[in-house]
Amino acid sequence: MNLYEHTIIARQDTSPSEIKQLTEKYSKIVEKNNGEVVKTENWGLLNLSYLIKKNKKGSYIHFKIRGKGNVIDELEKNEAIDKKLLRYLTVKVKEFDLETNFFSKKDEIEKKENTKN
Hints:
alpha+beta; Alpha-Beta Plaits; four-stranded antiparallel sheet; globular
């Protein structure tokens, strides 16, 4: 089994309930193709470096997936025709970093560090 990190960017006008539906939709596609979603992170609404389809911002959703290559093929095939998505990216990795959450608020990070000490 291969390990993948997969990120999708939804349009800025996508509601939180639609974000949840997108997350569930793509998680089910992974599971139908004998893959496993190890972790899902909602990074929230972030600024884009440049305009994409007249959008200045996008809602980022990040998946950590364990599966074979056909899982990613099927996932990207469905994402290519989804009008709610601006971009998607898949990166094959050697191992997952399940500890670090790069887009959490600074207050949450400080609380975690204080509880460790």
